[in-house]
Amino acid sequence: MVQSTQFPFEFLHADTKTQARRGRLHLPHGVVETPAFMPVGTQGTVKGLTIDQVAGTGAHILLGNTYHLSLRPGSELIAELGGLHRFMGWDKPILTDSGGFQIFSLGEMNKVTEDGATFKSHLDGSKIHLRPEDSIRIQEQLGSDIAMVLDHVIALPASDEAVLDASDRSVRWAQRCKAAAVRQDQAMFAIVQGGLNPNARVRCAEQLMEVGFDGYAVGGLSVGEPPPEMYRILDIVCPVLPTDQPRYLMGVGRPIDLVEGIARGIDMFDCVMPTRNGRNATAFTANGLLKMRNQSHASDDSPIEPDCHCLACKHSRAYIRHLFQAGEMLGPILLSIHNLTFYQRLMSSARSAIEEDHFEEFLNEQRTRLA
Amino acid sequence: MVQSTQFPFEFLHADTKTQARRGRLHLPHGVVETPAFMPVGTQGTVKGLTIDQVAGTGAHILLGNTYHLSLRPGSELIAELGGLHRFMGWDKPILTDSGGFQIFSLGEMNKVTEDGATFKSHLDGSKIHLRPEDSIRIQEQLGSDIAMVLDHVIALPASDEAVLDASDRSVRWAQRCKAAAVRQDQAMFAIVQGGLNPNARVRCAEQLMEVGFDGYAVGGLSVGEPPPEMYRILDIVCPVLPTDQPRYLMGVGRPIDLVEGIARGIDMFDCVMPTRNGRNATAFTANGLLKMRNQSHASDDSPIEPDCHCLACKHSRAYIRHLFQAGEMLGPILLSIHNLTFYQRLMSSARSAIEEDHFEEFLNEQRTRLA
Questions:
Q1: In this predicted model, what pLDDT tens digit does every residue of B221-244 receive, in sequence order?
Q2: B171/chain A closest Cα distance in angstroms
């Protein structure tokens, strides 16, 4: 196993009763306290929030989407303008995905060959060929702190043969990504694929560790399978991964999924759920979801959560409801701020619980409240 | 002339070469430095901005819309929840309009009688009868610092007969508004109507001054007439109005219109232009308008205005353009912040120019730059 020391992952504390870990990841643009949640800034902006507001939610690191940014405004332009950090005005760490998941979910997939993926742009239908080397070149132009390898994502359920074909290809692409990297100031994380097949997952993880990366992600989950299936895969994959390197569960998820992921040894998460739900008038709270358009909030003078210090919780539920009923932008804005703040508070509470050796109680409490 | 001393208007300085005035209006929720621009918070929110961001633009006072708020969420509800200030989280002064202009411009007008206006709600088509007394009751429920009298607004051009009929009715309605007022902590401004007819304007102003109000607005302008027509009416109306009370030009306007209004003795303005243009990708600058979707900004690393300290101007024009091209909410948000900041800086510069006795030079400079 080749391990990088250029982007040290401090292992601060291990929970005694679960696999939860408290860590600190050192990156070129700063330190990420783990477990960490990364808000998604798909097109160079966390939807509806100024960069000050994003920082105010407590985020240490953002995710940017290579697929979207490479199509518009283009990674060459962003590089010319000083990179993604400068372009969006965020001076803390950024992780960029590789585009693999977006090609799978958004693009009209034409063909995957050993060379790369050929697909149609969702913007103008133009034909694009993306090889692993292209994804790394683009991510190097964006200048993120962490680049992800290009992986071959497939729809589930799939045959064992299709799963193994895609996960073996993902390993070969990961090797090519590593070989293509030029920047010294950018970490690279590999992505463990293998669908819901335990053998394929373990094989993929072991092969990627042979190549050696700065961190390991678990990909291809949260695509419609029942949550217990996802937890089962984490139970199998995490013990195989290096203990002294960060682990990232991609695109997950609901608050309870984050806590369950932490209990299984995951350090990093990203998801559009807090902002997407915020735009759709749904608030996350410690006791579950609130639909803010409901008539029950119409004259409710209390905030969404009394102990939340976010901007939204300076207002009444009645006001938030009014904003959504009136179609005002401020409704989605305030609820996105609240939901991101909720996710960051959940991560902060999880970190404290691990440090103070009562993560299992925290986990059980969240299972009761959130599940 | 009956003059209120409950809401003192300090007359700080008169320009020597124009009619420009520097004043300070004392209201229950604070002090307004004049000349002042009021951002419009139609539905209990300045579109797209948190209340902290509104304050950050330099606004001293907001405008709220009686018509919209009375239909949704309802003035009774806002009163129950502690009034409009508390509802929207703004603790500085608020002026509410009377609904007269919105009934004219938005509602399907059915009938104006001496008793009041009957119209259809633009939300659900329900039939509403609004008398002057109703408008005041609603504004007292909202709890604004300044209530406006209900006026009879008509489309221009109109016959002299129609103009006089409406402006005389506006005076009688203003009397009824004054008689209906109960709250002691709310100023009431009258509205001078009279279309583009100088005699009707002067007659209306004199009749309103006989009744006596805390301030005087000039209404029914900026409805499509050429700007010189508006300036001509101000040249006629302002000299008639009391020098020791505030004057408010309703719904105006472009930056140059504000400066021309100040030169004629106007103290207060409101307009949706900075936020509406912001949402439509148009930026105000000291040298005129910028269309931010233009290809010319695509790789421009400079801010909209180098000497502007707003959030938008921490970013490049290229980034702002990208946000609009990508359909991201942050584009309208940042440009609304910039445009409101621009309007407030213009007012601040005008106030300084009056204090320092060089307002005429300032006026001429703005005529060159903006017109």
A1: 988 889 999 999 999 999 999 999
A2: 33
